[in-house]
Design goal:
Elements lengths: L2 H7 L1 H31 L9 E2 L2 E2 H25 L8 H5 L1
Antiparallel strand pairs: 1-2
Pfam families: DUF997
Protein name: DUF997 family protein
Keywords: Membrane, Transmembrane, Transmembrane helix
Length: 95
């Protein structure tokens, strides 16, 4: 069996593709969150900034809260959607 056919039939590639798509979606969510708060709230004049715990609100929401939200989303995605996949080659194990 050539490598191309082997990749098509291996069930682990289907799972790897699904998990890669979930990872890309998480990255897009993180970027939208960060960009929205950083440039949405941070585009004002400095004299109009609001501060939270000594940090500008745009920085607090984009970096501090964004980090916490992304950690929660990644943990949820890994626990809910990711599966444990063996890395061993099935053909070698069956011989």
């Amino acid at each position: 069996m050539n490598l191309k056919n082997k990749k098509k039939k291996d069930w682990r590639f289907h799972i790897a593709h699904k998990e890669a798509i979930i990872g890309v979606i998480l990255v897009i969510i993180n970027f939208i969150w960060w960009y929205g708060f950083a440039y949405g709230l941070g585009s004002k004049d400095v004299s109009e900034y609001h501060y939270i715990f000594g940090l500008p609100a745009w920085f607090f929401y984009s970096c501090v809260v964004g980090f916490i939200v992304m950690v929660v989303l990644v943990v949820f995605a890994v626990k809910a959607f990711f599966k444990d996949v063996p890395f061993d080659d099935e053909e070698e194990g069956s011989i």
